[in-house]
Design brief:
InterPro entries: AAA+_ATPase, ABC_AA/LPS_Transport, ABC_transporter-like_ATP-bd, ABC_transporter-like_CS, BCA_ABC_TP_C, P-loop_NTPase. This is ABC transporter ATP-binding protein. One of its GO terms (molecular function) is ATP binding. Keywords: ATP-binding, Nucleotide-binding, Transport. The chain is α/β, with parallel strands linked by helices. Helix content is 38%, strand content 22%. The strands form 2 sheets. A 6-stranded mixed beta sheet has the order 6-7-8-3-9-10, sandwiched between helices. A 4-stranded antiparallel beta sheet has the order 2-1-4-5, covered by helices on one side. Helix 3 runs parallel beside helix 6 and helix 8 runs antiparallel to helix 11. The protein is globular, with a radius of gyration of 19 Å. The relative contact order is 0.18. The chain binds adenosine-5'-triphosphate and magnesium ion. Adenosine-5'-triphosphate (ATP) binds next to strand 2 and helix 1.
Length: 272
């Protein structure tokens, strides 16, 4: 990116967080810390509570107990827009973009937190000077994400890989200090996945971000995560470096059913 707008990366602390749905403990006393400027993966089988965790972090789900701290300040119980104002942006497991709007307009919506009067300014039209500054930055982020060629196309006409990158780029347009991604490479082919993994890493480096992401693609997880938290049945199974997690007996049995002696490719293959 040519215009840098470096933020201070946020620290995230998840302290003994539980989320309950009519008797089901989807998260049960989950704790982990994400150091500023690191990439932190959350992995685990289907239904483990990964998306529930991201929803709790971004204020979409209420936590039954525990605390969520961003840079030492509690965000537990804040509404999603308030959490966003603390510098937290996220993408969703299912793509959520406006299909009739152009790529550029979808990205501009991502800026609303930063405009003078929030979303109303986006809807009603910004002052021309302000609009120009935001649009320049959005075009910059789009170029970084490989979307320059599709800026004027309606989102509905984009290829799947472009749509996933649009979601990622829109989250970047909020200039977050903590970026939360739910399965960013799901459904992508190997080349697209590797490219998005590279983008996440590059965004962390260029923008000063902390990243928390959920992903089933172990090749991507092992290649970009500094630390990994493993969830199962709403609880933390283990937490540590990729090397530590790779050796953990419960991870090996839950994911592979056999010792993991091979490289990432084979791991990804057996998980897919
Ligand atoms: N809004 C909700 N209401 C009731 N139960 C829910 C709700 N959201 C999640 N759950 C339940 O909580 C548990 C964890 O679901 P969650 O979506 O967090 O899993 P996940 O780890 O993201 O799985 P996947 O890998 O399939 O995306 C599941 O049993 C799910 O059915
Ligand atoms: Mg999920």
């Amino acid at each position: 990116m040519t215009t840098t707008q470096t933020q201070t990366a946020a620290e995230l602390r998840v302290e003994d967080v539980s989320v309950v749905f009519s008797g089901l403990r989807a998260l049960d006393g989950v704790s982990f810390t994400v150091r500023p400027g690191t990439i932190h993966a959350v992995i685990g089988p289907n239904g483990a509570g990964k998306t529930t965790l991201l929803n709790a972090l971004s204020g979409i789900y209420r936590v039954a107990s525990g605390r969520i701290m961003v840079d030492g300040q509690e965000v537990t119980g804040l509404r999603p827009d308030r959490v966003a104002r603390r510098g937290v942006a996220r993408t969703f497991q299912n793509i959520v973009v406006s299909p009739v709007e152009s790529t550029l307009d979808n990205l501009m919506v991502g800026r609303h937190r930063l405009t003078r009067s929030g979303i109303a300014a986006t809807a009603l039209g910004l002052g021309r000077g302000e609009q120009r500054v935001h649009e320049a930055r959005v075009r910059d982020i789009a170029e970084f994400a490989g979307l320059s060629g599709v800026l004027d196309r309606p989102a509905a006409s984009l290829a799947y890989g472009d749509l996933k990158r649009l979601e990622f780029a829109r989250a970047l347009c909020l200039e977050p200090r903590l970026l939360i991604l739910d399965e960013p490479v799901a459904g992508m082919n190997a080349a697209e996945s590797a490219e998005l993994a590279r983008l996440v890493s590059a965004a962390r480096d260029a923008l000063g971000l902390t990243v928390v992401f959920v992903e089933h693609d172990m090749g991507v997880v092992m290649s970009i995560a500094d630390r990994i938290t493993v969830l199962d049945f709403g609880k933390v199974v283990t937490d540590g470096t990729p090397e530590h997690v790779r050796q953990h007996p419960e991870v090996i049995s839950a994911y592979l059913g056999a010792p993991m002696e091979s490289g990432n490719d084979q791991v990804a293959e057996r998980l897919s």
